[in-house]
Give the backbone structure.
Amino acid sequence: MEQWMQDALQKTIDKFRKGTSIAARQGILPYTGEKGRFGPAPFDGNSWWTGGFWPGIMWQCYNATKEECFLQEALRAEEMLVAQIAAFEKLHHDVGFMYLLSCGAHDRLIGDTAARTHTLHAANLLAGRFNPEGFIRAWNGEDHIGYAIVDCMMNLPLLHWAAKQTGDPRYTKIARIHADTTIREFQRPDGSCCHICIFDPESGKVLQRPRGQGYKEGSSWSRGQAWALYGFTLSALNLKDDTYLAAAKRCADYFISHIRPDGLTCCDFCQPDEPELIDNIAGACAACGLIELAKLTGEEKYHASALKLLYGLHTLCADYSDRYTGVLQKCTAAYHNDGAGRHINILYGDYFYLEALCKLAGHDARLWMCE
Ligand code: GLY
């Protein structure tokens, strides 16, 4: 591991060590890192889809250091998320992000029956969103009955995990059908993916592919591309199936051909030159997928591209000072401002940055894996 990677990892862990007491004092699930404090989720309180990333950061730091402060903070955050399972109403397909990185991590790293049970509840919620026409419904509300989004590829590991835990193939079958639909209906011949497919919930026919969080219909939202890249890679790893490996490679090749010379990632790969919108979350997530893809395929270009992304983040956009509580700057929730943040720190970018650095150091907690 090169010195800059070691420095990046150490400084990131150091920053979050200080963050543990700040977050606990605020009593929130942090969403953004700001000056001396964290900001809460912009919408829907503790059921907002990003709630698992803070405990995920804590578990990765705990796995690396075994320091009690990380464990305690992970457990505090987990309690807030567990309360959402009982509340139920606002939960959505992103229970994979939320519960694999909190309860699932808890059970994986130190063994906990209650945490395992909560993770199984989350898997059942996700499976319960399956429409037998071939897709997992993303969001709630009458207007969204036929909506599926590419991001869901990152929720499928929860189903892979549940299948492994219970021996019940229904979870795997749902995950496979949804992933196959994603290849067929979301991935384009050039390897790019659309963000949203609206299906007729009765017939399963695609009605529309709106722009979603990207620049415009037909463009390529970089974070959606990163979700697909890492999500297909995880399906290939968890299911040991080359169909998903091939899909992951198509996503990766497209992503790699659009990495900026400085290693940063545009918010949408088809966006105009102005405004120059960057989304560093996309780069950090893609780096995780590329590192795993390099190991799966033995192809050096994937590893080299991951390092290019991480080096760009480390040298140009990582803040390791005490000024802000988060690390990666220039994170952007959506191309068209949706109120969830533009060119600021958003902590799920930090989660993937940390995970990628842990992978390079050889101690990733492997929170997305079914075994
Ligand atoms: N999963 C929603 C997003 O990436 O913003």
The longest helix spans residues 3-26. The pocket of glycine is lined by residues 49, 151, 213, 223, 333 (CB under 6 Å). The chain has a mean pLDDT of 98.
